[in-house]
Amino acid sequence: MPEDVIKEVIKVEDIQRCYITGDVEVHALSGVSLSIERGEFTAVAGPSGSGKTTLLNIISGLDSPDEGLVMLAGKPISRMGGNELSDFRRDHIGFVFQSFNLIPVLSVRENIEYIMLLQGVSKDERARRVSDILEDVGLEGMEGRLPMQLSGGQQQRVAVARAMVSRPEIILADEPTANLDSATGAGLLDMMHALNEKHGMTFVFSTHDDMIKERARRLVTLKDGQIHSDIRREQ
Amino acid sequence: MLLKMAYRNVFRHRRRSLLTGLMMAGGCALFAMFIGIVAGSYGNLISIFTRDHTGHVQVHARGYLQRPTIYKKIEDPYAVGKKALSLRHALAFAPRTHVPALAFAGTKTTGLTVTGIDPGLEPGVTGIRNRVKTGRFLTKADFETVLISDRIARVLKVGIGEELALISQAADGSIANGLFRVVGIVNSDGSGYHSSRLYMPIGTADQFFALDGGAHEIAIMLTSHEKARKAATQLQGLLGEEFEADPWQVVESEFYTAMQADIKGNYVTIIVFTIIIALGVLNTVLMVILERTREFGVMKALGTRPGDIMKLIVIETCMLALMSLVVGNTGGLLANWALSIHGITYPTPLEYGGVLFEKLLSKITLKTIWFPSVVILVSALIVSIPPALRAARISPTRAMRDI
Q1: For residue B355, is pLDDT > 70?
Q2: By the CB < 8 Å criterion, does B299 face chain A?
Q3: Using one digit for the tens of pLDDT, what is the confidence trace for A104-139?
Q4: pTM, full prediction
Q5: Which of A6, B118, B262, B306 is in Cβ range 3.0-4.6 Å of A74 for a Cys bridge?
Q6: B374: which residues sit within 8 A by CB, 6+ positions away?
Q7: Other C-beta atoms lying within 10 Å of the C-beta of residue B46
Q8: Alpha carbons B332 and B338: distance in angstroms, whole number
């Protein structure tokens, strides 16, 4: 089926992930199955150690399940490796990390451009998209600054801009508001909501943040590595 | 983008980059000095050695060098010498005869080699005139006059103006004997060659040993000792099979072999230098990898290919190495330039291959630049590859979790 008609943008089936630390075996995920449709704004919640980050890592191809199938945009990423997986992540997934993780030696503009450079997007197109996204995230005039010259909230906005500018189908955000004060976190969430509405990208958050849980259209709760609840809400 | 990132990363930890860069630059400068001094010292040594008596190329009758006898002569040495002067880099030639003899003075006697030299031509090839410490050098007008080494003078207890008797066998089978007046004493300090030698005008030697105008050896001086092999080959072509034209490396093969072994011994120092520099670079690159593990993890998560991460680290290391090489080579060149002019004077002259050396001199050659540069760049490149591979293989989740 062509990618553009696949409604189910993320599909995980019966995935298992177990970590061994010394003699201790930790079942991070046990038989998790989940399907997320294009354009959904989904929060994955649960207590610490429930498997939220592991689930996001597996969905993104940063980690592999011991068992089970992971399909992204109709492709089985659990069978990819090396450059194929790197290229797939570059083209299909945008990341927003808890601790921003901007590249310190690159300016705001260069950080945002980074993925487009890897993709080989033309200079004019990059300039146009950077200019648009800077306006979307409210960072006009700051494109020349280095990450260390920005506040935490501003850095996270750059991270969101970096994740979205290459127009991936899926944005994965691992506790994006955890290192921000509540007002900044709320502002960031508003911005991501607006971008979700505007561009129709699929957002998946792992979070402890009640504000995100309340505003997500779908709330998946994990407990002991299994899906405890999966609630869809009308906004 | 990789180049830009690499450049900025080099200046990200300025102090560390500066220290590593200084180590590489210092290593490069020392390396260049070492090579310059090796080239300069051995060049100087060869120059003094060949100037002392050997010359750069020698011509003998075929077989003379392997088994010298009075009978193996070059019949027309001046004609051969003129042919030698037709070579592009030839400066001068000097014919010589060598015959062993017994010398007597009063009740004293000693064995020696009688060397006939052309007083007009010999100073153009060797520095024997400068070795005359008392008395005077021979002139074209001299006949039955000789120069003796200070050792022979001491053994025979003869001085300037005194006579000594020589007895030997002439080339025609007769007994050669005669009285000769000493006009000069040759300083043989540190030279085994001069210490057992008596010099007389080649005309006197010709008559005394019935050589019939022949000579045993023609020494040729070139513009540089480095041209000796090529010139000897060319001259051999000009002279034909009757003669043997050999460069100084063949004539003084023992000296040359010993010197080559000595030069090879210096490679140990070069290897030690390289290992020290490589370990320093390795340490820095490993620290970079450790400190930036999270960053590499993020880059991989964003879709950077493992090969690009590896390239980034290798480019950073090479960039730092190249910057260091500019500084190091500048320092090395300046030091070699100063040492090539002023040198370092030994507290006491150093004896090598029977010749005394007073100064350690450096020499600037292309090798003083390219060799340290290549060794440092290649060793930096090699040591950066394993850590770069490690960074390229970092698991993004682990990298972002561990740090």
Answers
A1: no
A2: yes
A3: 999 999 999 999 999 999 999 999 999 988 888 888
A4: 0.71
A5: A6
A6: none
A7: 24
A8: 10
CA angle B202-B206-B211, nearest 5°? 135
Residue B61: name the closest of B88, B25, B97 by CA.
Answer: B97
* Cross-chain residue pair A97–B298, CB shorter than 8 Å: yes
Strands B145-149 and B175-186: parallel
Please tell me if residue B174 touches chain A, with a CB cutoff of 8 Å.
Answer: no
SS3 label, residue A1? coil
Q: What are the angstrom distances between the C-alpha of B237 and each of A200, B91, B112?
A: 88, 19, 35
Q: Which residue of B has its CA nearest to A55?
A: B397
Dig out the tokens for B14 from the structure: 């300025």
Strand partners, A71: A11, A76
Q: Which residues of B119-133 are buried (b: 16+ CB within 10 A; e: fewer)?
A: bebbbebbebeebbe
User: Which residue from A83, A95, A105 is facing B301, i.e. has the nearest CB?
Assistant: A95
Amino acid B225 reads H
- The angle at the Cα of A43, spanning A208 to A135, to the nearest 5 degrees, equals 100
The CATH superfamily holding the domain A3-232 is: P-loop containing nucleotide triphosphate hydrolases (3.40.50.300)
Asked whether the beta carbons of residue A91 and residue B303 sit closer than 8 angstroms, the reply is yes
Q: How far is CA B316 from CA A31, B299, B301, in A?
A: 45, 16, 21
> Could you tell me the two tokens for A44?
């994955």
B223-282 per-position pLDDT tens digit: 988 899 999 999 999 998 999 999 999 988 888 888 888 888 877 887 887 888 788 878
pLDDT digits (tens, 9 = 90+) for A11-70: 999 999 998 877 888 888 999 999 999 889 999 999 888 888 899 989 988 888 999 999
Question: What letter represents residue B126's amino acid?
Answer: T
Q: Which of A63, A103, A162 sits opposite B295 (nearest CB)?
A: A103
Which positions ≥6 away from B390 have C-beta within 8 Å?
Answer: B289
pLDDT at B74: 94
Backbone angles phi, psi at B214, to 5 degrees: -85, 170
DSSP B75: S
How confident is the model at residue A212, as a pLDDT?
Answer: 82
Cα–Cα dist A161/A154, whole Å: 10
Interface ipTM: 0.85
Pairwise CA distance, residues A135 & B68, whole Å: 96
Q: Which pLDDT tens digit goes with each residue over B17-71?
A: 888 888 889 888 988 998 898 888 888 888 888 888 889 999 999 999 899 999 9
Q: Do B306 and A83 touch (CB under 8 A)?
A: yes
Name the residue ranges covered by the structural domains of chain A: 3-232
User: Taken in order A145, A147, A152, A154, is the CA torsion positive or negative?
Assistant: positive
Q: Where are the alpha helices (DSSP H) in B217-352?
A: 228-239, 248-251, 253-291, 293-301, 306-341
Phi, psi of B319 (to 5 degrees): -65, -45
- State the DSSP code for A51: S
- For B99-137, the pLDDT digits (tens) are 999 999 989 999 999 999 999 999 999 888 888 989 999
Taking CA–CA distances from B301, the nearest residue in chain A reads: A62
